[in-house]
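Appendix B, Record 12. Input sequence as logged:
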Amino acid sequence: MEISPSNSAEIMVENLQMQIPPDRQTFTEALLVGEIADLKIEHKAFLGPIKETITLLPGHTTLLLLVSGKGRLSAGSIVQSLTPDSIVVPIADIPTVQIEVERGKELHFLQFTKKLSTQDLKDLTQFPKENRQKLYATRFEDCEPYTEKIKSPNTISRTVLPANIIPRVSLGTVEAIGPDKVGAHKHPMLEQLFLGLTDNDVMVYADQVSTKFKQYSLLHIPLGSTHWVEVAENKKMNYMWMDFFLTKEGEEWLKTHKPINTNQIMSNNQLKNK
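Logged structural output:
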């Protein structure tokens, strides 16, 4: 595991090892161990031909975030294609899932395993019925766009995991071509991770410290810090934020995300592609 250099240990960044060791078909590395309570993060990589079973812990929820490569996931009679820039969340009472990768192909993904509190388990029963089916899967590009005051009109943001799928967890993406930035803000009601997606190349600041943040890196924003992100001219901002709320009430923060209509997104895409 490689830890990228930063100006302070307060901003933890770990780079994913994107090469499977020789003569191996599987590789697993733990990431940001102990950084967030009740959360286990693993980077897993499979080289085909292979079919692996993942056991899902009772009293926990599991989220798979697809980073690169292709594969297929089976959960009982449900079969789901696995492609980059997408997530899969096995929900309801699924004890195991199987992941299959074809010969000569690789699949890299992050597996998040979060322990559910008593309140979380109660809240799950109150979520919309359609959100409590056996599998929640979506590609980033298919998700609802939003805007907020700390971002420019050129930034495209999407809500990938709304707050009513996993209790106290929400995910989204941020994309822009520089020069651009996400303005300074803080949210002491949640722990936040960033995952650098393809070609991400930005600077992240938190209070008096900063760090480079590249593709295939996982970063932990110091809890309660004032933080912001900047991307230089002709470089790309392309990362996923992951919010882990300390309490259910903290999810009120998500109301700062305002839905954006399709015409606005088309206009933003035109600006991005210039």
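Confidence is low (pLDDT under 50) at residues 1-9, 264-274.
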